[in-house]
């Protein structure tokens, strides 16, 4: 029950009444609702209903007509203290209405939640802020809560109150900057925003909810009240994940953009349900272990690919509602496939209805553009120095793990968080307190994020897209690392693609591009990415990067994918790589699946499928990805012939011999050292006829007791042109 307050009349009355009518009262609960008069059992009830012609109040004796205090919609009643909550009904031009008075309910947010939020440690803020269905003081309704410390007044607006900010001004929670309002009787599905009035300028503006769980479909930007009804069926997966030894497990990631992987016959988006059915079947067939979704958080612009997020707590409505996305994740888990999400904590768009200048000030972003703007991207940078902003992002990471059972976050553009001078010229950035270029606040945030996620959700993965030589990105925070599980190996990607784009006749001069990675391969837990960033903006598709005629281009691509499979590190490929998408990726349409009607592209897809299953089935390919014991050069010096050979081992000593011929020259009687005598057979040959190769290979053969390349035994092999061979002992 609301605590009754005493209120003076006269000047205070007039001041409060005017402020309520003008929608600028900072604390509407101090005047609206029910307030005790004097020390007896008398009270005054006040209602503000613009446009109402008559208002009646429900009392134990029945309905009584309230007195119109002002034609703007102020109605009062003097009488006994009424038991709360009580109802009123009113008449206006649209008819007769009845509701509970929102201004007689007590606060919903507890003092502990308010304190933890101010401290930046309310990791379940998504359960308290935003819009949530509640049963409060015996009444069903919706609780709205938002952070806007520089607002004079905040109101909830929507269809239910004609988008008029006078109807539902919110309760301010002391000096915390939090505002809340429980609106009784409000139903699921309602759309809403927040109307704010700036405390200094008096400017009134409307913002969408930073913590909203759902939105209207673009281009509309209103939030929607939702409540999950999904019943999870992935308990076996989630239990096993807590015990998973991911460092020694296969990880072959299929990166995709849900809006352009496939579309329906009319060119429209598929739903989450349709995507789950088609994509899951495809992923299982191809041998992938995980999918990684480019940002599914709500975003207004398709061309941003999701990286300019406007709704951090809402799966995009392009493909369905939040429960549809939960069912999507659930289906993959039940089939044994992990789901990773791209996550963008480094920046957000400047749309005037979103986070930008949320309460009329630089609230979520740094105020100084030398700290607060990414000019390259036209976005704002989160102010990691504010507890509440860090809380927004920390709780968001927890939200996707908790509410959607996400298995990991690939954190976008980590370098832009680490360095204050990222993509800035001299004079365009501000050093840290010690005069350095490191963003100490963002570094602390990343460490806290990794610690919090791993403590709360055992087995969850965090992967850094980090392109610099920052040390110990994937090392624990207690030894000075950033705490990520893994890091994208951008050096491997750049060097390998640079090498593969060379005409084979010149590759002999660039062998170091391939061998250099072993100098740092175990300094981090690496993922080898051939991602979306490599097939856009004039960089060409992977196929178009390859030199030579048609046969050589496809052979080179088969060789590249095979080399990625054998090289230490977990694997990631962007959609389309697996069947040699011919043109650059275009987010506005589906991939060119009709290419699979041609044998060249079929061959790449069959090769990708075979590599996927081979990789999953043979621990030597993944068991010791992050340890030097899992790799040994056989020969890295044959630059003249552009041949590389190495061994991959598992913890039990089983090994695979991988040999790569990076020229179109057929090489016969090529001697290779091996560690043991015995019978060796090809388990994979990228030149096989099934892949549209020339079908040159080797029958099973026995190793000679002839030392070679520092190994006690050796084989004589035929090396197919532009091809990879994997051999294993019987």
UniProtKB/TrEMBL annotation:
<comment type="pathway">
    <text>Glycan biosynthesis; glycogen biosynthesis.</text>
</comment>
<protein>
    <recommendedName>
        <fullName>1,4-alpha-glucan branching enzyme GlgB</fullName>
        <ecNumber>2.4.1.18</ecNumber>
    </recommendedName>
</protein>
<comment type="function">
    <text>Catalyzes the formation of the alpha-1,6-glucosidic linkages in glycogen by scission of a 1,4-alpha-linked oligosaccharide from growing alpha-1,4-glucan chains and the subsequent attachment of the oligosaccharide to the alpha-1,6 position.</text>
</comment>
<dbReference type="InterPro" id="IPR054169">
    <property type="entry name" value="GlgB_N"/>
</dbReference>
<dbReference type="Pfam" id="PF02922">
    <property type="entry name" value="CBM_48"/>
</dbReference>
<dbReference type="InterPro" id="IPR037439">
    <property type="entry name" value="Branching_enzy"/>
</dbReference>
<dbReference type="InterPro" id="IPR006407">
    <property type="entry name" value="GlgB"/>
</dbReference>
<dbReference type="Pfam" id="PF00128">
    <property type="entry name" value="Alpha-amylase"/>
</dbReference>
<dbReference type="InterPro" id="IPR006048">
    <property type="entry name" value="A-amylase/branching_C"/>
</dbReference>
<comment type="similarity">
    <text>Belongs to the glycosyl hydrolase 13 family. GlgB subfamily.</text>
</comment>
<dbReference type="InterPro" id="IPR014756">
    <property type="entry name" value="Ig_E-set"/>
</dbReference>
<feature type="active site" description="Proton donor">
    <location>
        <position position="465"/>
    </location>
</feature>
<dbReference type="Pfam" id="PF22019">
    <property type="entry name" value="GlgB_N"/>
</dbReference>
<dbReference type="InterPro" id="IPR004193">
    <property type="entry name" value="Glyco_hydro_13_N"/>
</dbReference>
<keyword id="KW-0808">Transferase</keyword>
<keyword id="KW-0321">Glycogen metabolism</keyword>
<keyword id="KW-0320">Glycogen biosynthesis</keyword>
<dbReference type="InterPro" id="IPR006047">
    <property type="entry name" value="GH13_cat_dom"/>
</dbReference>
<dbReference type="InterPro" id="IPR044143">
    <property type="entry name" value="GlgB_N_E_set_prok"/>
</dbReference>
<keyword id="KW-0119">Carbohydrate metabolism</keyword>
<feature type="domain" description="Glycosyl hydrolase family 13 catalytic">
    <location>
        <begin position="255"/>
        <end position="613"/>
    </location>
</feature>
<dbReference type="InterPro" id="IPR013780">
    <property type="entry name" value="Glyco_hydro_b"/>
</dbReference>
<dbReference type="InterPro" id="IPR017853">
    <property type="entry name" value="GH"/>
</dbReference>
<dbReference type="Pfam" id="PF02806">
    <property type="entry name" value="Alpha-amylase_C"/>
</dbReference>
<keyword id="KW-0328">Glycosyltransferase</keyword>
<comment type="subunit">
    <text>Monomer.</text>
</comment>
<dbReference type="GO" id="GO:0003844">
    <property type="term" value="F:1,4-alpha-glucan branching enzyme activity"/>
</dbReference>
<feature type="active site" description="Nucleophile">
    <location>
        <position position="412"/>
    </location>
</feature>
<dbReference type="InterPro" id="IPR013783">
    <property type="entry name" value="Ig-like_fold"/>
</dbReference>
